[in-house]
């Protein structure tokens, strides 16, 4: 078949490659090019254990204090609040134990084999060199801070995550970069890292083109819909048609999804990172700094600190406060590292109100598919999502329960 994949982040590129390997003629469409957005700016961790949503019990009680605390990792552009409120109401409704349990079980099925999925995707391509397998660590400044996170670790244990807990002193012997910053460190096993996420996605896209795939750098302006199915894409370069169309446009997916009748409550979570270029030394493992909810990751030639949540829409310029917070926190956890300069970046994470990505057919005929909404785990879940979509288009049923991710749960709302 002729298939169009809209969006050239990790989800779209993965989908395009798996469809190409199945023998389809695939065109990959993106307004900027492969790996330019969140697929470039993420923390680079293949986080198999990221199965706890932001919406945990007690969030409604904690959130106001976080918004007014300059050292908390939650920000809001107040002028955006009126537009945000309908989403926020739906979002906070999921801050309960039943939803956390559903989310953890569903996402564990999608993410548990992330390293193997990346290795299969990148096998025999130049992208394979960017993948490593290592622990993903969580650092706690005090035993009390670790104890306060017991709920999340219990939920992770329930879905089979393997981890151990060591003292900060014991961890220091293995990874001295952090000094005596942490009292407790949790080491999550069977995780991985991408040493340069943007270059990795670009290398995968180059492989797709080398194998005969088509890449169109153009913006999608509209779609034609008849009887609930897409009949054409309108782009800045003209009209495109195909037998199947996959929408993997990340935070820019909402308008098209709603036009297809997939009325998903959806927002952009603005994420930030800073990079310390040419550092004097490198940490060994990616580390989630629990106090600031940001990740420190060793990358090719730099250390990246990525995290923070800001609600402010797709159009507003970056805020200074998240960058300054990251700078202060990095200086606190890596006090002895020097570097040449700091690079700053802001991008957008696609956030459905229930935090579950949409993966599957949008219509009963299977003419179009959604593959977006991965929030904080797009890099982790991208290759498997692409493989699942390719299987569906090929008429094969995925070997996992896809009902939590079914876009059709929003049709008719």
From TrEMBL:
Keywords attached to this entry: Oxidoreductase
Class of enzymatic activity (EC top level): oxidoreductase
Ranges of residues in domain FAD dependent oxidoreductase: 2-392
Pfam families registered for this protein in UniProt: DAO
GO cellular-component term (any): cytoplasm
SUPFAM superfamilies referenced in this protein's UniProt entry, alphabetically: FAD-linked reductases, C-terminal domain, FAD/NAD(P)-binding domain
EC number: 1.4.99.-
Origin: domain of life: Bacteria
Molecular functions (GO terms): oxidoreductase activity
Name this polypeptide is given: D-amino acid dehydrogenase 1
């Amino acid at each position: 078949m002729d298939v169009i994949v809209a969006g050239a982040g990790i989800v779209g590129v993965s989908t395009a490659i798996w469809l190409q390997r199945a023998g389809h003629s695939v065109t990959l469409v993106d307004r900027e090019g492969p790996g330019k957005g969140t697929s470039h700016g993420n923390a680079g961790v293949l986080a198999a254990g990221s199965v706890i949503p932001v919406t945990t019990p007690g969030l409604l009680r904690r959130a106001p204090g976080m918004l007014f605390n300059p050292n908390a990792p939650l920000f809001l552009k107040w002028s955006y609040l009126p537009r945000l409120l309908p989403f926020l109401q739906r979002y906070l409704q999921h801050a309960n134990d039943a939803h956390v349990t559903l989310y953890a079980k569903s996402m564990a099925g999608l993410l548990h084999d992330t390293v193997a999925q990346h290795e299969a995707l990148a096998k025999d391509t130049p992208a394979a060199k960017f993948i490593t397998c290592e622990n993903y660590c969580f650092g706690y400044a005090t035993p009390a801070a670790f104890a306060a996170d017991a709920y999340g670790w219990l939920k992770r244990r329930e879905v089979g995550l393997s981890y151990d807990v060591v003292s900060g002193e014991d961890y220091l012997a293995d990874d001295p970069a952090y000094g005596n910053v942490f009292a407790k460190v949790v080491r999550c096993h069977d995780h991985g890292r991408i040493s340069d996420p943007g270059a990795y996605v670009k290398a995968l896209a180059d492989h797709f083109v080398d194998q005969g795939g088509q890449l169109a750098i153009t913006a999608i302006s509209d779609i034609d819909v008849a009887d609930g199915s897409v009949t054409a894409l309108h782009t800045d370069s003209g009209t495109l048609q195909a037998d199947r169309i996959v929408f993997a446009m990340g935070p820019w997916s909402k308008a098209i999804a709603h036009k297809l009748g997939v009325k998903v409550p959806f927002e952009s979570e603005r994420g930030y990172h800073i990079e310390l270029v040419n550092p004097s030394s490198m940490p060994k493992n990616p580390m989630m700094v629990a106090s600031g909810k940001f990740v420190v990751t060793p990358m090719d030639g730099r250390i990246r600190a990525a995290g923070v949540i800001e609600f402010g829409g797709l159009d507003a310029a970056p805020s200074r406060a998240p960058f300054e917070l990251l700078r202060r926190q990095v200086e606190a956890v890596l006090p002895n590292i020097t570097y040449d300069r700091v690079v700053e970046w802001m991008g957008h994470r696609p956030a459905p109100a229930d935090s579950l990505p949409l993966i599957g057919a949008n219509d009963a005929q299977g003419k179009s598919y959604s593959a977006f909404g991965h929030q904080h785990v797009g890099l982790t879940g991208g290759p498997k999502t692409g493989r699942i979509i390719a299987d569906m288009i090929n008429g094969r049923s995925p070997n996992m329960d896809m009902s939590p991710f079914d876009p059709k749960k929003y049709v008719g709302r």
